[in-house]
Amino acid sequence: MRRLQRFGLTASELERYNMAMMRDSAQLAEQANSISSINSLDFVMESLALGNTVMRHGEAHEAMQLVAKSIRLDEVNALAASMLTFASDVGREADMLEMAAAPGQEEQWAGPGPTRATSVVACIPAYVSAGGDAVSVGGGMAADHARGLTGASGHIDADAINLEELEAQGSQVDKLQDMEAPEGAISFDVSGDDILDALASPEIDPEPLPDIELPSHLMDPAEIDAAVQALHPRFIPLEGSLDDALSRADSLPPAACCPPVNEDTGITQRRLSNGIRVNYRHTDNEPKAGLLRIVAAGGRASESTDPGPGGVGAVGVGTRTLSEGGAVADFSREQVEAFCIANLVQSVMDSNDEFFVMDVHFAATNGGLRCAFELLHQVLQHPRWEQQAFERSKLAFINSGQSVGKSLERASSSKIMGAMLGPDMRLGDPAPEYLEQLTLDGVRNVLERQLHPTNLELNVAGDFDQQELEELVLKYVGKWA
Fold it and tell me: DSSP string of 11-55?
């Protein structure tokens, strides 16, 4: 927050946020007919209450296109400098007002000038373990009661507040604070002045971020075309072994390799010449948007039962290492993030007992589907396995394993799984001493064996052009080896 208030956005940040805003606006315009009536009513009521002009989503997108051209970096940064002082300079309001009033500062601030915080709310644990982990949180409003206080717009309904119940909850919090810390824990005593001092600390002196170059592609189109020409990826029959299907593919008519959509399920099935199976279904439940899911069979169940460089916990730690790193090929993590933000692409990677899964959400407008395939290809084919990301991932799993005994639910589950499975720890929380034996090369080898093309399945659902999808599948997925 302080960095943004001091230095504002860079030129490339403004460019990619502008692109993302326009893509989001275009997608919203496409989804106009699928928005629920209650959300439309809330939008109209809010617009009327604020004195805004109510427009159809298509008209709003056209207006957004015109307004976006007039957005200037200096105006955005002046607005950030003014609006964010309430959080970046708590306790220094007088200094910020004096700075804004100094001669020559008029263009550095937007009206009405610096803002100030009216209150500071902090949620802190009642006590912590000697190692610093929170073992108890302060009391708070029950979730079901909190939901009952909100109206259709999500705002607090003053008429629904029960003051007596709130006072009772407050007294419970006071009793919790008066309780002695349990064995192995210490009270977490922080005053309001301590919090204000931490927020206003001059030691928090951020540096401006470097201007990150926004890549237009994660893969060179010329290299992709050359690889397609060299490898000649194609669809093959669904039935039979891979070698048998490859030998029969050239002599069969196209319909045998590209069967029509299943009328009962609406699913179209394909099989690539490298063994990857593809299932896709067109649906307009979310107009001009969709989801790619790549699935590899195996998961943690395929791990070795013994500790070692690629032993127990390798799949879980390896998956998190890929997600933590984020860098692919010649692109840094920051460039990949900028590419995803600008093109409305979101990805999630996870592994469970049976599968490795990577989901990629995409907007199907303005090349969004191509961007999703570029990300999918680079993450799974050319990831950068970084030692720092591996160490962070391993430490996260070690901390999680050490905290099992602090949760009644997790401790009970661990005991039950131990009674069922015995010494096999692949389906439970790996012991910290086992995780310590993992190495970057070990987890990499384990995960790369699962990501072999013959063990992968690609599933796609959304509102996309089916011909474009099949062309992109051949280009970006069909040449995996």
Answer: HHHHHHHHHHHHHHHHHHHHTGGGS-HHHHHHHHHHHHHHTPPP-
Average pLDDT (441-470) is 93
- Kindly list the distances between the CA atom of residue 149 and the CA atoms of 43, 144, 161, in Å, as whole numbers in the listed order: 20, 9, 6
Nearest CA-CA partner of 24 in 465, 377, 362: 362
CA–CA dist 195, 179 (Å, integer): 22
* pLDDT value, residue 138: 44
Find out whether 460 and 470 touch, Cβ atoms under 8 Å. Answer: no
pLDDT of residue 194: 86
Q: Give the burial class of 159: count Cβ atoms within 10 A of its Cβ; 0-12 exposed, 13-18 middle, 19 or more buried.
A: exposed
Pairing of strands 268-271, 277-282: antiparallel
The pLDDT, as a whole number, for residue 356 is: 94
| SS3 (DSSP) at 357 | strand
How many angstroms separate the CA atoms of 56 and 78, rounded? Answer: 31
58-60-65-68 Cα dihedral, nearest 10 degrees = -160
Question: CA end-to-end span of the chain, whole Å?
Answer: 44
- Which residues of 149-188 form beta strands (DSSP E)? 185-187
Cα separation, 49 vs 467, in Å, equals 46
Q: What is the dihedral sign for C-alpha 10, 23, 350, 474?
A: negative
* Rounded CA separation 218/379 (Å): 10
3-state secondary structure of 258: coil
- Residue 142: pLDDT above 50? no
**Which residue type sits at 19?**
M
Residues contacting residue 211 through CB under 8 Å, at least 6 positions apart: 10, 11, 12, 13
pLDDT-based confidence at residue 157 (cuts at 50, 70, 90): low
* Sequence-ordered strand ranges (E) for 283-382: 289-297, 346-351, 355-363
Which are the contacts of 226, defined by CB distance < 8 A and separation ≥ 6?
Answer: none
357 in Cβ contact with 293 (< 8 Å): yes
> CA-to-CA distance for 355 and 352, rounded, in angstroms?
6
